[in-house]
């Protein structure tokens, strides 16, 4: 018959106190412990109201910057997109080259530029804040979508006029002029930037973002049972 599991009476009080205050000893890991105020938050910890407001402000800044960048995308699209040549014979406006691929080229140019903008914006946002966060990803996607809409508007507004008949009468019979800059696959063109930005940003966060720390109570950091040093201080008495 064994004695109850109680510390030996001759164990020094200082040793018991040091063992109770040792986070890597007999104390179990508490997953619900809240860090002290003013400490730096680790990945996986819950943000407070102040940190959450800071994340929302950063997401708003990202969305605003990408919205302004849409103007640059529209100007690049206007500059690089192939033109569709038209010609008038006084009775109708016809394609000068009926087998040309310029109309498809305008869509392809916009999509490629939007993908490039999505890649660059995702890398820039990741370098700006490596910790990531849902508000930041939402701001990245929303800014890319609004920026694509603005780019579409800038390209069509500053491009050739949409009044083809008036333009044909103005230039005269047999004179080649450019058709309006248009997007035929509007859905794919508008989603190219935000989708590319979200995928690249999530990939960078998963590969190079900060990792969650391993709990000190699991693995080799500590144990839940009595410390092994208890036997070193003295053997517990046994009753025969």
Structural class: mainly alpha
Strand neighbour order, sheet with most strands: 2-1-3
Mean pLDDT: 75
Name the overall outline.
elongated
End-to-end Cα distance: 6 Å
Number of strands: 3
Provide a count of the helices. Answer: 7
| Fraction in helix | 40-55%
Strand content: under 5%
Query: Biggest sheet, open or closed, and with what strands and sense?
Result: 3 strands, antiparallel
State the oligomer. Answer: single chain
Q: What Rg, in angstroms, do the CA atoms define?
A: 33 Å
Q: Which regions are unreliable across 5 or more consecutive residues at pLDDT < 50?
A: 14-26, 29-44, 217-225, 227-234
SSE pattern: HHEEHHHEHH
Write a structural description.
By secondary structure, this protein is mainly alpha-helical. The protein has a domain at 55-82 and 100-208. The chain is 53% helix and 4% strand. It is built from 7 helices and 3 strands, in the order H-H-E-E-H-H-H-E-H-H. Strand 1 (85-88) and strand 2 form a beta hairpin.
């Amino acid at each position: 018959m064994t004695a109850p599991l109680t510390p030996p009476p001759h164990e020094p009080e200082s040793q018991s106190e040091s063992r109770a205050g040792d986070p890597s000893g007999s104390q179990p890991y508490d997953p619900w412990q809240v860090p002290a105020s003013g400490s730096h938050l680790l990945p996986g910890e819950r943000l407070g109201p102040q940190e959450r407001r800071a994340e929302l402000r950063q997401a708003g800044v990202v969305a605003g910057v990408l919205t302004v960048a849409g103007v640059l995308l529209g100007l690049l699209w206007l500059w690089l997109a192939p033109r569709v040549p038209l010609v008038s014979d006084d009775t109708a406006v016809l394609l000068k080259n009926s087998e040309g691929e310029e109309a498809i080229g305008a869509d392809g140019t916009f999509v490629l530029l939007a993908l490039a903008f999505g890649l660059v914006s995702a890398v820039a946002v990741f370098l700006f804040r490596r910790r990531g966060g849902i508000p930041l990803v939402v701001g990245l996607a929303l800014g890319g979508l609004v920026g694509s809409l603005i780019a579409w508007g800038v390209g069509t507004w500053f491009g050739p006029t949409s009044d083809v008949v008036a333009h044909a009468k103005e230039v005269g019979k047999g004179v080649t002029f450019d058709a309006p800059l248009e997007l035929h696959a509007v859905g794919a063109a508008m989603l190219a930037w935000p989708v590319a930005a979200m995928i690249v940003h999530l990939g960078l966060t998963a590969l190079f973002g900060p990792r969650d720390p391993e709990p000190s109570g699991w693995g080799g950091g500590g144990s839940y049972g009595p410390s092994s040093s208890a036997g070193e201080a003295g053997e517990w008495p046994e009753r025969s």
